[in-house]
Amino acid sequence: MANGDQLKALFRSYAEGDDRHFYSVAMQMAAHEAKQGHGKLAEELRDLIDAAKARRHAGTVDGAIPLARPKGELASLLSVSYPSCRLSDMVLSQPVLAGLQQVLKEQKHLSKLRSHGLHPRRKLLLVGPSGTGKTMTAAALAGELGIPLFVVRLDALITKFMGESAAKLRQVFDAVASTRGVYFFDEFDAIGSQRGMANDVGEIRRILNSFLLMIEQDESSSVIVAATNHVGILDDALFRRFDDLVEYHVPSADEIRALLRMRLGSYLKSAKSIDALATEAVGLSHAEITRAVGDAVKEAVMHDQTSVPAEEVKMLLLQRQAVRRRTPVTRP
């Protein structure tokens, strides 16, 4: 039989979402049984481990496993996925990256920290302009931790009937407590705006009060992420409910160059063109630059080209700039 240390290591790695260590300990247990002469049991354990690895891989590629799919009314409040993206797929400022890496580090040592009476970071408020990476951050955190991403559907959460929204929010937080995942509240200002504002609606005020109470009481292992483009209108009481406030901005010149290199990849004909293209992209968000480059790459693929002309990328970046200024751009 497995010894106590192995069992503790197995449960600890499961609780922390450390699949690699979990499978390693499980294989050690199978090897131990084989040495004890329990060949049939050892073989069964190895078969179970191999099957679990295969299911895990299929779940991350094909979608969420059924056990993590919300049921009943909760299915209308949460959409679930298993993202494959990582922080390395993003171009982030150093302060943002360092903050997120600290969150991941603490999450991966969740059990150890809690055993010492410490609380790992897990409630994040992401603020900044549209298209700067807030939504992708939630997906990347889920991908890094190997847990599902649950997106809270605010359109289904907010109703005109007194008390109904708070009851639905309670269902969401019950899910937060029962199923570990990253729970993402996008466009959070829809429920988090300051109480007493001119456009204050009674039901919104009630749901904000409920949210403040529920997030403060929550002591689960899930990660709660809220994002807004309008931090200035958030209620002051919200800020102390979150462990970290993460501020996003449009990319700097260096970040634009890194983003262009990442998105163009092998389609980049000449590295010398990066600086000129970066100049045209100043002021655009990560999403706008990514879409412009993506459009250029798609054209290359459809025309069986192996590289993207710098002029094509430049024109698409200028078109994105024109949308911001609401001025037309004509091709030369």
Automatic annotation (TrEMBL):
<dbReference type="InterPro" id="IPR050168">
    <property type="entry name" value="AAA_ATPase_domain"/>
</dbReference>
<dbReference type="GO" id="GO:0016887">
    <property type="term" value="F:ATP hydrolysis activity"/>
</dbReference>
<dbReference type="InterPro" id="IPR027417">
    <property type="entry name" value="P-loop_NTPase"/>
</dbReference>
<dbReference type="Pfam" id="PF00004">
    <property type="entry name" value="AAA"/>
</dbReference>
<dbReference type="InterPro" id="IPR003959">
    <property type="entry name" value="ATPase_AAA_core"/>
</dbReference>
<protein>
    <submittedName>
        <fullName>ATP-binding protein</fullName>
    </submittedName>
</protein>
<dbReference type="InterPro" id="IPR003593">
    <property type="entry name" value="AAA+_ATPase"/>
</dbReference>
<keyword id="KW-0067">ATP-binding</keyword>
<dbReference type="GO" id="GO:0005524">
    <property type="term" value="F:ATP binding"/>
</dbReference>
<feature type="domain" description="AAA+ ATPase">
    <location>
        <begin position="120"/>
        <end position="252"/>
    </location>
</feature>
<keyword id="KW-0547">Nucleotide-binding</keyword>
